[in-house]
Amino acid sequence: MTQHIDKLAWILLDNKRVLMTRSYGKDQYYLPGGKREKGESDQQALIREIKEELNVDLLPDSLQLVETFQAQAHGKAEGVMVIMRCYQAQYQGELSASAEIEEIRWLTTKDKAICSQAGCLVLDYLFAKGLID
User: Fold this and answer.
1) Which of 99, 100, 89 is nearest to 19 (CA)?
2) Is pLDDT above 70 for 1?
3) What pLDDT does 75 receive?
4) Which ranges in 3-131 belong to alpha helices (H)?
5) HEC letters along 112-133
6) What is the dihedral of CA 131, 113, 115, 125, to 10 degrees?
7) Which CATH number fits domain 4-129: 3.90.79.10, 3.40.50.20, 3.50.50.60, 3.40.710.10?
8) CA 106, CA 133: separation in Å to the nearest integer?
9) Which of the chain's ends, N or C, has fewer CB atoms near its CB within 10 Å?
10) Is 11 helix (H, G, I), strand (E, B) or coil?
11) Could you tell me the sign of the dihedral formed by the alpha carbons of 85, 39, 33, 22, in that order?
12) pLDDT over 90 (residue 123)
């Protein structure tokens, strides 16, 4: 039986680049976000995760679903898939890495070698839409 990891992610674009994060001890970049806690909606979980990871507040009324991506989960057994629902949203505050995030970077398709499989799917999608280089 295939195992799925349900993840929510934030797509933030700037100057034809997308914001990605790298957690401590990890070697690949991911879209910021994470897993929902019991009873949370997509909106509640994503707002909480982004506050925890990047110290900013997503504006609830601005959240818009972009796309859902599915890929092999990085660092997990073969066949463990991540299903990532990606949203765009405006935010308040100044982006900064939290205790669990070692680095935040603005990436383009040239950076696919350092991204998770799901991250690469997002990069390809955004490139095809003309939103990133």
Assistant:
1) 89
2) no
3) 81
4) 42-54, 117-128
5) HHHECHHHHHHHHHHHHCCCCC
6) 30
7) 3.90.79.10
8) 11
9) N
10) coil
11) negative
12) yes
Q: Which residue, among 126, 93, 88, 124, has the nearest Cα to 9 in the 3D structure?
A: 88
CA-based R_g, the chain, Å:
14
Provide the 10 A C-beta neighbour count for residue 45: 20
- Residue 66 binned pLDDT confidence (cut-offs 50, 70, 90): very high
For the chain, which residues make up each domain, given as ranges? 4-129
Q: pTM of the prediction?
A: 0.94
Q: Which residues contact 69 (CB under 8 A, 6 or more apart)?
A: 83, 84, 86, 118, 121, 122, 125
Percent of the chain residues past pLDDT 90, beyond the cut: 87
- C-alpha angle 66/113/100, rounded to 5°? 70
Backbone angles phi, psi at 111, to 5 degrees: -100, 15
The mean pLDDT of the chain is 95
Burial class (CB in 10 A: 0-12, 13-18, 19+), 55: middle
Side by side, which strands form the sheet with 4-10? 33-34, 4-10, 81-88, 64-72
